[in-house]
Design a protein that fits this description.
2 domains; 11 helices; single chain; four-stranded antiparallel sheet; alpha+beta
Length: about 300
C-alpha cells in the first residue's frame, strides 16, 4: 500500500502499519487463488455426469474449504477491532508517542480521525473483497451441510453485514483503545465486545421479518410444507380449534406419526419458515442496525478524545 499521495497523520498511520495493511490484499489474493483452483478441480458428485474420483475429491475439498473459510470470516471483525484498539490506538497512548503527532501541527481529533479513516477504508474494502471471494466458492456448494444461506458463517460471509461488523470493530477499537490504554487488554476487550455484539444480533436476526406459515391436512408429507431452500423455524400439528401441538404429540400417544387419537382433534400440520427471499432484507436490516451502532460508538470515541486530550 503506497503512502506517497497521503498527507500528515494519514501518511504517518499508513507508514506505521504498512505491513499489516499489505496483509489484507495478500489474504484476498491467496483466497482467490485457492477458490479458483478448487472450483476448477471440483465437479458436483450429485450431477448427472459420473464424476471421476479426483473431481469428487475436489468437490469435497472445496466444500470443506468453504466451511472453514466461513468460520474464519466470523472472526474477521474481532481481529479488525483488536488491531485498531491495540497497535493503532492503545499502544501509542501507552507509550506516549501519540504526543509526537501534536508537534506536527496536528490535533488529537485529527490523530484519531486518521487512524479511524485508514482502518475503516481498508476494513471495508478488504471485507467486501473477501466476501466476494467467499461467495465465488460458496455458490458452488451452497445448500450442503453447514453451508445453507442462513447458517452461521455462510450468512455473514456472503453479504454486506460482514462489512458492517468490521466497521463496528474499528469504532469499538477506537473507543476501547482510549479507555483501556493498555495494548493487550484493549485488544481483548474490543474482541470480546465485538463478538458479543455479533452473537446478540445473530440471536435475533430471524425475528426482523415475519415467518411464512404453510399448512396441509393431516396426515401428509411434512416435507411438502416448505421449499427445499427455506429456513425452518417451527413446525407442529393443528387441532380443529386452531391450537398448536408439538410435532410428535400424536406419536407419543399412538406410536405412529400418521395416526392421531380422535380425542386430540388434529386436523392439519403446519410449518413456519423463512424463504430464501428473506436473505437480502434481513442482511440490509441487520447491516443498518450495525452501522447505526457504529456511528454511536464513533461519536463517543471522538467525544472522548476531545474531552480528555483537547
Amino acid at each position: 500500500m503506497s503512502a506517497l499521495t497521503l498527507k500528515g497523520p494519514y501518511w504517518v498511520t499508513v507508514r506505521q502499519h504498512r505491513r499489516a495493511l499489505w496483509a489484507v490484499p495478500a489474504l484476498v489474493a491467496a483466497g482467490l487463488v485457492a477458490v479458483v483452483a478448487l472450483r476448477s478441480w471440483a465437479a458436483d458428485p450429485y450431477s448427472e455426469r459420473v464424476p471421476t474420483p479426483s473431481a469428487s475429491d475436489g468437490y469435497d475439498l472445496l466444500r470443506l474449504f468453504m466451511e472453514y473459510a466461513g468460520t474464519g470470516l466470523l472472526f474477521l471483525p474481532l481481529l479488525v477491532g483488536a488491531f485498531v484498539a491495540g497497535p493503532m490506538t492503545a499502544r501509542e497512548l501507552e507509550s506516549g508517542t501519540w504526543q509526537l503527532a501534536l508537534t506536527q501541527s496536528s490535533t488529537p481529533k485529527a490523530w484519531l480521525g486518521a487512524k479511524v479513516l485508514v482502518a475503516a477504508m481498508v476494513s471495508a474494502l478488504g471485507s467486501a473483497a473477501l466476501a466476494g471471494v467467499y461467495r465465488l466458492g460458496w455458490v458452488r456448494v451452497s445448500g450442503t451441510y453447514q453451508l445453507h444461506w442462513a447458517d452461521r458463517g455462510s450468512y455473514e460471509a456472503t453479504g454486506p453485514v460482514l462489512i458492517g461488523y468490521c466497521l463496528l470493530g474499528v469504532a469499538l477499537g477506537a473507543l476501547v483503545g482510549q479507555l483501556v490504554r493498555r495494548t493487550l487488554a484493549a485488544m481483548a476487550v474490543t474482541a470480546l465486545l465485538t463478538g458479543l455484539t455479533m452473537l446478540a444480533l445473530g440471536a435475533v436476526r430471524w425475528s426482523f421479518l415475519s415467518t411464512v406459515t404453510n399448512t396441509m391436512p393431516f396426515p401428509g408429507n411434512p416435507a411438502k410444507l416448505i421449499p427445499h431452500s427455506a429456513l425452518m423455524r417451527d413446525s407442529g400439528l393443528l387441532t380443529a380449534s386452531g391450537e398448536r401441538l408439538p410435532e410428535y404429540a400424536c406419536f407419543e400417544r399412538s406410536q405412529n406419526l400418521s395416526v392421531c387419537p380422535a380425542d386430540m382433534n388434529v386436523t392439519a400440520q403446519y410449518a413456519e419458515f423463512h424463504p430464501a427471499s428473506h436473505y437480502w432484507p434481513t442482511q440490509l436490516i441487520e447491516t443498518s442496525l450495525v452501522l447505526a451502532l457504529t456511528a454511536a460508538v464513533l461519536y463517543a470515541a471522538f467525544r472522548l478524545v476531545r474531552v480528555r486530550r483537547g
